[in-house]
Amino acid sequence: MNTDNILITCIASEGHADEIMSVARQAGARGGTVLGARGTGTEEDVKFFGISMVPQKEMLLIVAQADLVQTIVAAICSMSIFSDPGSGIVYTTPVHQFHILGQCE
Fold first, then answer.
1. In whole angstroms, what is the distance from residue 26 CA to residue 95 CA?
2. Taking a C-beta distance cutoff of 8 angstroms, is the pair 23, 8 a contact?
3. C-beta separation of 98 from 47 below 8 A
4. Could you tell me which of 5, 3, 11 has the C-alpha nearest to residue 91?
5. Which residues is 87 bridged to in the sheet?
6. Running along the chain, 105 residues long, what does each successive block of 10 average in pLDDT?
7. Which residues does UniProt assign to the signal peptide (predicted)?
8. Domain spans, the chain
9. CATH number of 5-95
10. 3-class state of residue 73 by DSSP
């Protein structure tokens, strides 16, 4: 099924996913998925991207309606845990198809 959904991905230091998801829900997100992750950047990558890489990260994936994405991303970006440069990243990706398994057409 074609959709007007967008995938919001937020990568932050381990331990912040619940707080981020709470803020995202207040901004209109319905739910998300948390994955454990770790950075693999080199010293040059860290300097190039300006991100302080620590081994343990959490990746939060949220599929949201396109009209809510700007509000959700702005809410995440305004969190105090992201006040320092390099404390995390958030980006969006178009979702071309979305199916609830068991209800596929």
1. 22
2. no
3. no
4. 11
5. none
6. 87 94 98 88 58 74 97 97 89 92 82
7. none
8. 5-95
9. 3.30.70.120
10. helix
